[in-house]
Amino acid sequence: MQLWKEYEEKALERFRRANGGKLKDMILWTSHMTEPEFLHLLDPEVYTVQYWESSTNKQLPNLVKQGFQVIMSNYDDLYLDCGFGAWVGEGNNWCSPYKGWQKIYMNNPKKYLAAQGVTDPAQLAKIVGGETACGQSRPGIRTL
Predict the structure, then answer these.
(1) Whole-angstrom Cα distance, residue 94 to residue 128?
(2) DSSP states of 87-122 as a string?
């Protein structure tokens, strides 16, 4: 993880130089780096985390409690590449069922946080938006 931290620091410095010395918000997807044991390696004043886990994963409350702004892309509600046949193997793909507009529309990060004990308005306000995601493995003109 130290190597990853060094990479992030160098990338951040290159971004700062390319941006005339200004540091804008950096977006980092959830990964091992955003797990509780490594989260201290990131600065919540610099990084916004795009949350790519399930709505019940314990990373979500941990991120807002540590002061990170979060863009929700929880795959159980906001991943459009779900509900089709398995790309490799048999049966449905890993994130089935298909996510219809109703499920996407009802995505409620504050409800998910409250279910995990987060009710502080300042922490709830760390959810700054959401974005549906779609991988390249399955979608196409006949599947969207």
Answers:
(1) 28
(2) SSSSSB-TT-S---HHHHHT--HHHHHHHTT---HH
DSSP state, 42?
Answer: S
Burial 50-66 (b: 16+ CB within 10 A, else e): bbbbebebebbbbbbbb
- Picking from 79, 73, 42, 44, the residue whose alpha carbon sits closest to that of residue 57 is 73
- Token duo for residue 27: 């977006």
CA distance 53 to 48: 15
Of 21-30, 60-69, 72-81, 132-141, where does mean pLDDT reach its minimum? 132-141
Adjacent-strand bridge partners of 48: 27, 69
Q: pTM for the whole thing?
A: 0.84
Amino acid symbol at 124: L
**Gap between the Cα atoms of 14 and 69, Å rounded:** 22
- The Cβ-side half-sphere exposure at 36, using a 13 Å CA radius, reads 7
Q: How confident is the model at residue 104 (pLDDT cuts 50, 70, 90)?
A: confident
